[in-house]
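Lay summary

Proteins are chains of building blocks that fold into shapes. Our project writes down both the chain and a compact code for its shape. Here are two examples, one after the other.
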Amino acid sequence: MKNILQIILFILVFLQFSYQVIATEKIKTDSLHQPTKNKLLNVGSLTATGIIGAGVFLEFSKHKDHWYTSKYAFQDEVFKQIHDYTTVVDDYTQFAPLGISLGLIALNKSGKNKRMGQISRLLTSEIIGLTVMGKLKTTTKRRRPNGIAITSFPSGHTTQAFIGARFLDKEFGNNYPWLKYTGYILATFTGVSRVMNNDHWISDVLVGAGIGILSVDLTYWAFDKLKKKNISISPIMVRKGAVLKFSILL
């Protein structure tokens, strides 16, 4: 590998590819103005699963022969090409897709669901994604590449960024297609920056991105399934965090 462009390209193969493939989810029935079924195993979910698989492989691989065989070899290659890169922009871009979504909700812009449905789905996605991410961090206790802490796996910044990006896509993507691409680009930048900052391994970023996407897909699938059974989900705040409240509509 000759230069930094190839390093970034490798990351984009997994992260940027997610929103390119997800865009193909509009099947032929859309052109006939027929509703598309919300399936859990859609293209986006399968792509996210593949991303997680690649991240897990790189996380536990011990091979260091090539830059694509382990997180250690990849990070070594990054720092052969990059010197003294540092930025705090990713601390803000992780929330950018979420901020766009909240702005659209506040302005009552047309989406897939009504305002309360949007808020419930967004909060539920956040609870699922951040809970899974947090549990993995405390369970695996993987050390960051900079050696500062043992909270590396997976990347919380990337998880948050892709929760926001995927929600923006699912809820507002049909009406504002340019915004959904903006969300994925911002999320991808966040993940790339975490690696270049030496705050995370490439495996942390890939798994974080996959968790973010899957948490939203799981939320939308569950809401739609339970709605058919007259059961509603309402995220509520409690002293130590947030929980999901299930209600039966009689």
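And here is the second example, written the same way.
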Amino acid sequence: MTSDSRPIAGIEPDAVTRWISDNVQGFAGPAQFTLIAGGRSNLTYLVTDTQGRKVALRRPPTGSVLESAHDMGREWKFITALQGTGVPVAAPLAFCDDHAVTGADFYVMDFVDGVVMGDSDDAQQLSEPARYHASEQIADVLARLHSLDVNELDVPGSRKTTGYIQRQVERWTAQVQAVMPPETEQVVRIAQLLIEDVPPQVTGIAHGDYRVGNLSFDPEGNILAIFDWELATVGDSMADLGWLLSTWSQPGETAFAATTHTPTQAGGFMTRDEVTQRYAEKSGNDVSRIDFYVAFQRWRGACIQLGVRHRYEVGAMGDDGYDHRVLDKTIAGALDAAEADLRR
């Protein structure tokens, strides 16, 4: 039933094609599956049917999955609950919890055909005025997400008004200790510094990975969709802003300032300070302790990348051509920067 008979990591093409055809109205096989490059955690596929209709499929890595780390049901619940809220997400189409189909839970959503900026080369797809507008959109949409009343939405996560950062520190420390990389001692040391200085919690939705590379834009810089909801929960909203800023490079920076060299390195975007100020104006949230959240997110980002590196080392991420060894320097830089900031 498929137009491409080559092996596809994580996909049983015939079974998945039948399932989508039965559960997504108007979808007709044979289908073609393409692993979308750039994903370093859950796997994302472009699925094209015989009429050229495109949908996206999300499933966990194919092996060595830490318990609760890749909950597809969580992603599904968030994008479903956010329909109609003004927060841009892809339309959910169907969810499958029958592992007989392809070995894991997965879901299908509309394919959002926009500009996704993984690096500074990708940013060249937008003009400089569009990049500046994209910066405004990034701050505005995050403020809109954080303004939602979590008690009116059917989303997973604790409604506790304290303890989010502490729980996150415990969770990510445990996941690192589960695979015991060489960096474990430093991870634990920074975790203790974080626990000793946690600000009061601002309770709301925390996307968990809100950054430029998880957003799709139109040519004018408007956000079409937020992707990758696998880490989303109810928690401390300020953690999202800390993560966004920790991944926000600025032109000309030579010292370690962001977890990666991101699209914002290309120029034309707002500065980190400008993004912070616009978010504060739009959300009304106090940003005076943002430096703590940036340090926390440098540490958390390193923990996530340690998990990604481990999954590549054991062959659980499919053959997408990514050289996971480039993560070594990024992980070391993030941990060192987080520790230095917290000790200051």
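What can we say about the second shape? The beta strands are 32-35, 43-48, 54-59, 92-96, 106-110, 115-116, 203-206, 215-217, 223-226, 233-236.
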